[in-house]
Write a sequence for this structure.
C-alpha cells in the first residue's frame, strides 16, 4: 500500500487537479470547445494540462492561434512542434490575411495586438465554438482579479465585469444563449511563480527566446528592442549584441527583451527573484518587478 | 529530434517542489473594520506586492499627506468601484509563504454581502472575519458568522482589529472573544480563534506584537500557515462524481505520452476529481444513482498508476465490471451512500434580482449532473438579525429575493444522490440555474442547517427538524 498519499496535496498538485477538473467539465458540457494557443508559456502549460486531463485519450478539441504576422520565428517553429508533440490539431487565424485583403488596416503605431480581435471572433464564429480556453490568470492585473473561471461573452465577444454569474463551490455553470460563448480560464488561480514552478517540475520545454541568447538589440526609451524585419534599425539606434531573454512572446513590434544570462527555468526563477518572493521583510526592486512595470506601460499605450 | 522530446510527465515532480500546500480563505467584515488594510498588510508583509504597485501606493499616500504607505490602497480596485457605485464583487488575491500558498477571496462588506460572502465561503477553508475593537461584535458580524456556519467553513478566525485604538486592552479583547465564542457555539461553527490585531500598525498580522503581552496565540499569518488542512478528514467517505468517460480510440499515443503507462484497446476509464474521502485499488464502490456495485480495478494517472488516491486529486478510475457508468454518476463508498431522491429540501441562498416563487421551473446542478426541478414550497426565510447566544429565526415568506436565505423544497425530474451538506460539502451542494437564460440564481445546501434555527411563529415540526435528503423523504 502506498501510504505516502495520505497527506494534503501540494500547491502544484492542487492547482493541476483543479485545472484538469475544469478541462473535463468543459469537454463534457460544451459542443465545440477550442483552446487559444500562442506558444507562450501560459498557453504551453494549458496544453500540457489538457493532454494530462484526457490521457489516455487524445485532447478532444482543437487549438486556435491568432497569428499577428509579427511573431518570432522561433515561437512559430515551437508552436508547430508542440502541437505535434501533444498530438493536437491547430487552426491559424491570420491577421496578415485580413490586412492583405483590406478587412483590417495596419495601425499607425505598428502594433498588431489590437487587430487580433476580429480574426479571433470570426474564427470562433466559423468554428461554432461555444467555449474558448484562454491562459488568463487572476494575478495578472486588478480587473482580472474578479474574472470567473467560466466567463460569459456576448455576441460581440465582450466581457461584462459588472454582471457576472456567481461561481460557487466547483459547480461551473456554462449554460449560455445561442450566439454567446464562454471563455474558460483553467489557470485562474495560478500565479506567475506557479507557472514557472510547474514548467520546471514537469520539465516542459519553452520557446528558446524565453532563455538567454545573443541578439542585436537597441535601447529605446529604456527598453531593449531587437533589431528585426518588423522593428528595423532606426537612425538613432545604438545597436549592441547582448545576452537577452523575453518574458512574453507577443507581437515582435511591441515586445521588449530583458538583459539576462538565465539559460534554464531555474536560472530564470532565480534571476527574477521569484524564489525570494516569499522572503518576508525587505522589498526589492528586482527584475521581475521592473519587468511587470514595463508590461503595465505597454498596456497603458506606451507603444 | 524535436527539442520537445524532453517534455514528459515526471512522476512525483509536483510533489518535489517545496511541499507547499494550498489554503483558501475568504474575508468578511463591515466597511470600516479595516479589511482592506489587513489584506494589504498580508500582501505587503509576505512580499506579494509588485514594486510598481507599491510605488503607486506610496505616491498616493504622500499626496494624501501620510507619512507611511496606506496599505488599504493595495486593494484599490474595490474602492474605485465603490466610488463609482457599480457592482462590488469578490476579488481573488494571491500570496504565499514558504509553507503555504493562499488564495484569498476578498468579499466586500456591505452591498450584496450575502451573495459575496456565500460565494467566497463556498470554497473557503478559513473565514477571516473582522471586527473593530471599539465596536465589538455587531449585527454584520453575526450575519457573516451565520453564513460561514451554513456554508460549513471549517475554520473561522475573528480578527479584533484596531486594538491600538483601545490601548491594547486585554479586557476589551476578552469581552469580544467571549461574545464571539458564545455566538459561535449557538451557530454550530466548527472551529474558531480570536486574534487581537492592528492592521495599520502591523500588530499580530505577520509579526507578533509586544504590545499585547497578554495574548500568547499565533499571529494571523502564523495561524493561516499552521491551521489543519481538513480536506482529508472532513467527509471521509468516498465521493467521486464521474466527469468524462475516457475511451481512447486511436492506438497511437502522442509523443508526449510515450512515458505514460501503456493502455490496451478496450480501455474504459472514468475521469473525475475525488470530492471527499479516499479510494484504494480493490475497494468495493457503489455507482449512484443506480446503486450497482463494482470493485476498483485501477486508479490511473498519466504520471503512473496509484494504489490510493485522496480528496482533491483528479484521477481516472477503472472498474472490474463493464457496468454502464456515465457522466453524472457518482462513485461512492459502500458505507452509507446517499440514497437518490426525487424531492430535495435544503437551504437556498438567493443570488439573483428576480425572486424565487413557488411553482417556478428551474434547473438543479449537483456534482456533474443537472436536472429539471419545480419549487414545491418555500418554508421560510432566515431572519439574520439575532442576538449573540441565540440563533436566527425562520420567518414565513412567499418568495425569496436577492440575498435572502430560505428553506426550499424542490421536486426533481430525475433522482439525485445528494448528501446532507453538513456531512459532505461538495456533494451536498447544488446550484439553481435559470432554465431560459442559464443564469446562476441560487446556492443550495441539502438537508438540515448547521444550527437549529428558531421559528418566529408557531413552531412547525418541519422547520424545527428539516428532513434529511436521501433518507427516505421521497
Amino acid at each position: 500500500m502506498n501510504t505516502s498519499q495520505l497527506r494534503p496535496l501540494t500547491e502544484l498538485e492542487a492547482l493541476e487537479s483543479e485545472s484538469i477538473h475544469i478541462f473535463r467539465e468543459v469537454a463534457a458540457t460544451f459542443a465545440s470547445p477550442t483552446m487559444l494557443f500562442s506558444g507562450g508559456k501560459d498557453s504551453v502549460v494549458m496544453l500540457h494540462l489538457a493532454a494530462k486531463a484526457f490521457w489516455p485519450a487524445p485532447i478532444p478539441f482543437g487549438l486556435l492561434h491568432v497569428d499577428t504576422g509579427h511573431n518570432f520565428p522561433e515561437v512559430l517553429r515551437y508552436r508547430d512542434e508542440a502541437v505535434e508533440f501533444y498530438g493536437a490539431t491547430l487552426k491559424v487565424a491570420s491577421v496578415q490575411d485580413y490586412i492583405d485583403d483590406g478587412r483590417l488596416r495596419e495601425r499607425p503605431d505598428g502594433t498588431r495586438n489590437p487587430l487580433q480581435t476580429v480574426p479571433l471572433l470570426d474564427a470562433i464564429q466559423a468554428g461554432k465554438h461555444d467555449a474558448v480556453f484562454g491562459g488568463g490568470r487572476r494575478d495578472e492585473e486588478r480587473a482580472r482579479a474578479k474574472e470567473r473561471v467560466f466567463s460569459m461573452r456576448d455576441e460581440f465577444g465582450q466581457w461584462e465585469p459588472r454582471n457576472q454569474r456567481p461561481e460557487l463551490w466547483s459547480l461551473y455553470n456554462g449554460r449560455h444563449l445561442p450566439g454567446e460563448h464562454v471563455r474558460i480560464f483553467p489557470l485562474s488561480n495560478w500565479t506567475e511563480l506557479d507557472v514557472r514552478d510547474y514548467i520546471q517540475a514537469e520539465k516542459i520545454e519553452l520557446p528558446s527566446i524565453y532563455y538567454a541568447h545573443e541578439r542585436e538589440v537597441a535601447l529605446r526609451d529604456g527598453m531593449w528592442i531587437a533589431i528585426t524585419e518588423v522593428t528595423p534599425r532606426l537612425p538613432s539606434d545604438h545597436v549592441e549584441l547582448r545576452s537577452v531573454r523575453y518574458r512574453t512572446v507577443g507581437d515582435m513590434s511591441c515586445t521588449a527583451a530583458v538583459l539576462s544570462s538565465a539559460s534554464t527555468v531555474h536560472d530564470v526563477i532565480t534571476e527574477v527573484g521569484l524564489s525570494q518572493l516569499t522572503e518576508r521583510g525587505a522589498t526589492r526592486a528586482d527584475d521581475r518587478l521592473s519587468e511587470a512595470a514595463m508590461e503595465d506601460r505597454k498596456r497603458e499605450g506606451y507603444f | 529530434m524535436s527539442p520537445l522530446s524532453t517534455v514528459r510527465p515526471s512522476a512525483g515532480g509536483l510533489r518535489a517542489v517545496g511541499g507547499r500546500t494550498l489554503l483558501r480563505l475568504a474575508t468578511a467584515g463591515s466597511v470600516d473594520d479595516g479589511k482592506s488594510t489587513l489584506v494589504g498588510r498580508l500582501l505587503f508583509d509576505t512580499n506579494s506586492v509588485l514594486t510598481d504597485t507599491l510605488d503607486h501606493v506610496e505616491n498616493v499616500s504622500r499626496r494624501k499627506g501620510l507619512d507611511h504607505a496606506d496599505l488599504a490602497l493595495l486593494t484599490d480596485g474595490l474602492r474605485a468601484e465603490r466610488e463609482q457605485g457599480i457592482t462590488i464583487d469578490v476579488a481573488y488575491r494571491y500570496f504565499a509563504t514558504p509553507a503555504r500558498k493562499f488564495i484569498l477571496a476578498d468579499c466586500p462588506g456591505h452591498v450584496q454581502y450575502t451573495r459575496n460572502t456565500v460565494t467566497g465561503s463556498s470554497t473557503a477553508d478559513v473565514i477571516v472575519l473582522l471586527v473593530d475593537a471599539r465596536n465589538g461584535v455587531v449585527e454584520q458580524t453575526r450575519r457573516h458568522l451565520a453564513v460561514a456556519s451554513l456554508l460549513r467553513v471549517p475554520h473561522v478566525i475573528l480578527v479584533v482589529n484596531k486594538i491600538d485604538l483601545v490601548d491594547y486592552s486585554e479586557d476589551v479583547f476578552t469581552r469580544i472573544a467571549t461574545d464571539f465564542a458564545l455566538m459561535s457555539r449557538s451557530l454550530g461553527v466548527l472551529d474558531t480563534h480570536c486574534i487581537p490585531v492592528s492592521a495599520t500598525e502591523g500588530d499580530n498580522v505577520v509579526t507578533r506584537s509586544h504590545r499585547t503581552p497578554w495574548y500568547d496565540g499565533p499571529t494571523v499569518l502564523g495561524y493561516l500557515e499552521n491551521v489543519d488542512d481538513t480536506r482529508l478528514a472532513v467527509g471521509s467517505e468516498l465521493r467521486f462524481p464521474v466527469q468524462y468517460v475516457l475511451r481512447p480510440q486511436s492506438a497511437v499515443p502522442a509523443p508526449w505520452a510515450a512515458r505514460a503507462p501503456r493502455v490496451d484497446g478496450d480501455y474504459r476509464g472514468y475521469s473525475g476529481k475525488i470530492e471527499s474521502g479516499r479510494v484504494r485499488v480493490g475497494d468495493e464502490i457503489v455507482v449512484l444513482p443506480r446503486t450497482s456495485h463494482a470493485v476498483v480495478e485501477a486508479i490511473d494517472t498519466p504520471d503512473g498508476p496509484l494504489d490510493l488516491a485522496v480528496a482533491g486529486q483528479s484521477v481516472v478510475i477503472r472498474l472490474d465490471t463493464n457496468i454502464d457508468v456515465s457522466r453524472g454518476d457518482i462513485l461512492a463508498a459502500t458505507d452509507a451512500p446517499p440514497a437518490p431522491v426525487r424531492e430535495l429540501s435544503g437551504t437556498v441562498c438567493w443570488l439573483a434580482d428576480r425572486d424565487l416563487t413557488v411553482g417556478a421551473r428551474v434547473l438543479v446542478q449537483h456534482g456533474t449532473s443537472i436536472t429539471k426541478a419545480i419549487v414545491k414550497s418555500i418554508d421560510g426565510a432566515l431572519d439574520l438579525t439575532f442576538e449573540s447566544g441565540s440563533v436566527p429565526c425562520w420567518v414565513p415568506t412567499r418568495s425569496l429575493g436577492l440575498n435572502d436565505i430560505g428553506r426550499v423544497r424542490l421536486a426533481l425530474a430525475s433522482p439525485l444522490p445528494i448528501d446532507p451538506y453538513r456531512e459532505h460539502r461538495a456533494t451536498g451542494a447544488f446550484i439553481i440555474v435559470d432554465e431560459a437564460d442559464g443564469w446562476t440564481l441560487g446556492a443550495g445546501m441539502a438537508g438540515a442547517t448547521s444550527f437549529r434555527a428558531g421559528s418566529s411563529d408557531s413552531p412547525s415540526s418541519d422547520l424545527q427538524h428539516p428532513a434529511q435528503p436521501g433518507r427516505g423523504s421521497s
Q: What stands out?
A: Chain B touches chain A through 105 residues (CB under 8 Å).
